[in-house]
Automatic annotation (TrEMBL):
Gene3D superfamilies: 3.30.70.330. This is RNA recognition motif-containing protein. It comes from the Bacteria. Signal peptide: none annotated.
Amino acid sequence: MSTKIYVGNLPYTVDDESLRSNFAEFGGVSSAKVMMDRETGRSKGFGFVEMESAEVAQAAITGLHGVSVNGRSIVVNLARPREAGGGAGGGSAGYRASGRADVGYGNGGFGGGRY
């Protein structure tokens, strides 16, 4: 089973291949991906590496966390699962501003809310 690692504070010059090669020193790398900004095409300064086993992943975390890469001390730890409902367009609440029943359109007076 593969283990996913978060790599943060990367220099903007790091690409997928250099990320892969640095982690390959510790064992098998299933994938390596630097996150890129959609609009600018520039690195966001973080990425994810998938290692072939938990033991290899732990060795990479221990060996690379805090190491200086082009003057930046990188952060390396186990990736956490995504939080549900986050991001743009957000979750099941839709565009509702609040859960209060007395705020919004059609609840009396001009502007709809209580004063």
